[in-house]
TrEMBL record:
The keyword Transmembrane applies. Keywords: Antiport, Calcium, Calcium transport, Ion transport, Membrane, Phosphoprotein, Transmembrane, Transmembrane helix, Transport. This is VNX1 protein. It comes from Geococcyx californianus. One of its GO terms (molecular function) is calcium:proton antiporter activity. Residues 156-206 form the Inner membrane component domain. The keyword Protein biosynthesis does not apply.
Amino acid sequence: DVPKVIEPQGDSSVPRRGSLCDQHCAAINNVQGDLGCHLHCPRVPPGGLAVGWAGHGALGGSDTLYQLHISAVAVSPAICCQQHSDEVCESCVVKTTLTAENAVEANKLSNNYKFGFKKWKSHVTARPWEDRSEIVKELYSDLSVIRGSGGSTVTCGNVLYLLLFGWWLSVLYVLMAAMMFVTVVGAPHGRLCWHLAGYFLWPFGKVIQEPEVPTPRRALGACEAGTGESSALLGGPVPRHWCPRCWAGARSWRCAGTVVWLCLGYPVLALAHGLVCITAWLLIVLIPVAKLSARTATRVLLLPPERVFIRHLRMMEVPLEGRVILCCYRALNPYYYKYAVAGINVFAVNLLPLVLVTLVLGYVDNRNRLTSSPVKFTLALLSIMPLSYYIGMAIASISAQSNFAVGAVVNATFGSITELTFYITALIKGSREGNRCYAEIVKSALTGTLVGCVLFIPGLCMVIGGIRHQEQRFNSRSAGVSSALLFLSVGGVFAPTLFSKVYGKLICGECHNVTQNPLGHFLCHNCHFDLVSRDHASPVSHRPLVYTVSLLLPAAYLIGLFFTLKTHSHIYDIHISDCHMPGHHHSAVVHWSRWRALVILLLSTLCMSACADLATEHISPILTNSTISQYFIGVTVLAMVPELPEIVNGIQFALQNNLSLSIEIGNCIAVQVCMLQIPILVLFTIFYPTNFTLVFSDLHVYASMFSVVLMNYIFMDGKCDYFQGTVLVMVYFILLAVYFFAPSPSGC
């Protein structure tokens, strides 16, 4: 059922212009952004969405530009061609073409439009250098390229370098120069340190070069002839004593100077540059300074002093002969948030040591001698963010390099592993301590994830995307599938709660007679509906209903997968066709192979379990000593922190005017919470009894129901702007205020 483009008949090799169908097609608002857009009229059902990627060759071919086509019906056939029934146009379609460098990247893009697959923005393969923008090329450029005059070097970033690093590095080099001069044998290195002191005070607009090494035969001939060769670097003939044969007498003297330098001078300067490198790398925008310090410590300081030359670019009349080692123009670049190392974003790279610090402090300092429990809880919670990124990257890499079945299994298995590890460890700890508060915290986190993914993530993406694009459109039919599953899942999850309200038994902790009359009014605290029937006083139990719901919800999830990806695949119609594009010869160089991604996925999951265990271990003081409601802690911190990578992906999609994926990110997470995570927790309680029951408070029920209804109302027309996104965000913050002022749940 692949949509087919009708070829023109006869001599009409060129499409006719001016027909009513073409006029309607031209009137359709085209998709904005940086995506190439084309118009065509395939045979697709009205209101459908066709997604396809075109390419040629096997996976990882090297002679094709792959294109992902997303087609959404914008005008019905009756309106388009009501007076031209003899024409081949059945519906006018806006076709957006997304280009992919290779088959793996095209597979990743197509997976983004599949229900149940993780939506991932970052590339899983290395992008060709010629396809990158000039801004990105500058990020990865080497500090050994001499560019033309780019204006004054006095900028805010360069002044910041002078205040943070330049002045004390210069002072340190002056002290090292004095020490080397005192040793006498280290005088050459002392002169080098003296010149480097001026360089590192203000390295911008200066160049450090290494002269070309003459071959031994040429050097020997020059020494014997007695007339030195001309060198543009030195500006004159090469002296006779530069010949290696003439240096034999001074070899021992040079060796002594080198030993003194490596023992006294180099370690101190290498340590200083290492400190500068780490600090600048963590600040991200100062990564050029980190590159400068790293190359100095590993290259410049290890060269012989006579082979290091420092020149000012303005003083150079002709290009110098030799190899450029360092040439820096700017210390600060605000675009380094796009920088990636082996496909990993620089933020995730910088947060990875935080995971190691958290694990060491959490399992070594058991008695809290070094840090307190709130600090350890905060570190464990922050460590979940980079681990969530690595898990998402691994899932996207495996899915892009595998077939549909493997990708579906990996997404269903590890798609919710971040949240489940925390929930299960919290329930285990609550069961061991006999504290019902942990079960209430888990329920609050589940509700917070549901409400946040339904209101906050789409609303925030609408606001940020609406700032750049006046109006954004999305496929309302595909969003309707997720909305229908969301309605079903929310109704199934809260069915045991409604059952408890009707047939439950109200149990209160303590009651006081207000009127001093035995038949008067009583004021009760810590009341809840009990259907567990431990004493068999209640004739009804909610467990059969809970187990039934826990079986039906995953079955509904599987039916949704079968519906969207098999029987009604025209909603996400994916097809492959040949599309030869001359001039593109790119092979698929994946950042992570399947085995590497699998190992990283397993290690990240293991570290995630350890961090979740530490978070639940040190959350007790926060729950007992904090004046904030436990509802608020669960709904905000525990629910939304693990979803930060997904929020970033949604914002990036919205900025590219691809709001459909931004909405699907929130909907898919919400559906997985209700249809996968909650049934897994119920299944876990069968084998490991805990205090978790599928009975939520009234506040959770009302907040979730209202959020789902509001989301479906706003997404009804298939278009939105920043005002509608503001409404969703404001409603979310209103619900947070309700949770903030609500009393703590019973048992906490």
